[in-house]
Amino acid sequence: MDSEGHCCTAVTSYDADACRAPSAVHHNLRLLLSDDVRLRVQAAKEIRRLTKTSQRCRRHFSAAVRPLVDMLRSGSVEANEAALLALLNLAVKDETRQTQHDLEIIAHDFLTIPTQNSTLQFPYSSPPSELTFPSLFRNKISIVDAGALGPIICFLQSENSNLQEHATASLLTLSASTVNKPDISASGAIPLLVNILRHGSPQAKVDAVMALYNLSTYSDNLSLILQAEPIPSIVNLLKAHKKSSKTAEKCSALLESFMGFEEGRSALTSEDGGVLAVVEVLEGGSLQSREHAVGTLLMMCQSDRCKYREPILREGVIPGLLELTVQGTPKSQSKAQLLLRLLRDSPYPRSDFQPDTLENIVCNIISQIDGEDQCGKAKQMLAEMVQVSMEQSLRHLQQRALVCTPADLPIASEVSSK
Which of 28, 46, 170, 334 is deepest in the core (most CB within 10 A)? Predict the structure, then answer.
């Protein structure tokens, strides 16, 4: 699954062959210009089918973007849905660079498409001097430039659940383009996506949180997302999904990005089970999710240790942190160790007589934990962590010994035997 939330599937030879024939492309483009709504719907459905798995078809049907966007403004719900789904398939994974042959075919399609009564004019009246214009065929950008955001925003507010779901999925795909992110946020989509996150269907909620994640990578959007108060809904979504899922990863990434704001930190601690949900990801999430989770807790503790230390400790974070110090990514390991230092009774380094070792830090924290079960689990985790650390050190020493001993030199026992 990629940033657009779609799985990659194989291209069928039938669909690929259909898109190689200019007549098939022209036929469907002509139908899109028909005065008969039924024919336009038929063409949109065919374009959707052909572009479902074929990257070649997506490139060859780039000329269909504007007529399909025009269909979004039709009063027919069937036409709206057919056009939206066709655009969604056109926008999926369209960033690859075209071959010279592809560019020549598409450029021909972009010039004129004859119809029964008129000629459809496209942006160029003559072929470009050099057919190396990769940005021209990024359908995500073309769809937004053609004015699709207005109708899509309306569909987000529709009482038709299918249109609402398709519109959310469309924003997920379109928001994968860096160029589109400012336009999408300026369109007013963010509070509507948060509303979908609260009240939408299960699939719409997943698509909404992934779209919000895509938008959050544009720094100016973070404050706009926070203003819509998404954290309670993100926490609820996190609770409802497996901690190792892609959805949990995006939820965790969003929460970490919000911790740079006091309103984000306060919202997480105020939400019932908010900190606990993050701790559970730290314990059972994917490597990337665990990195986001420990980053979330670390940013909280670094911002105001006195305020956030107790809420974090209360949720039993120590065992997960201990495991992360030896089994996480390099970033997770360093963040976990730093967080352990902040969670102990005194955040300041100890004297030379009490070295600031990880073992001392953990023992200091364990001594303050209430409950025999939690304390026993933390001590067991510490013992396992020490064992794993010793095994890793031994392997490291053995590897160094192999590297430092030239293969052609006799080992010590052989020298002495001579």
Answer: 170
Residue whose tokens read 């309306």: 154
Tell me the mean pLDDT in the region 127-147: 64
Nearest C-alpha neighbor of 164 from the set 213, 140, 198: 198
Half-sphere exposure for 412 (CA within 13 Å, toward CB) = 1
Cβ-contact 4, 93 below 8 angstroms: yes
What are 321's two structure tokens?
Answer: 């942190």
Kindly calculate the radius of gyration of the chain based on its CA atoms and give it in whole angstroms: 28
Amino acid at 63: A
Farthest CA pair distance, the chain:
100
13: its two tokens: 């030879």
Q: Helix 100-111 and helix 22-32: axis angle, to 10°?
A: 30
List the beta bridge partners of residue 120. 113
C-alpha 293/C-alpha 172 separation (Å) is 23
Would you say 155 and 166 are in contact if contact means Cβ atoms under 8 Å apart?
A: yes
pLDDT digits (tens, 9 = 90+) for 69-82: 999 999 899 999 99
**Whole-model pTM?**
0.75
Task: Measure the CA dihedral 167/168/169/173, to 10°.
Answer: 100
What would the DSSP string read from start to end of 261-326?
SHHHHHHHHHSTTHHHHHHHHHHHS-HHHHHHHHHHHHHHHHH-HHHHHHHHHHTT-HHHHHHHHH
- Predicted confidence (pLDDT) per residue in 143-154, tens digit: 999 999 999 999
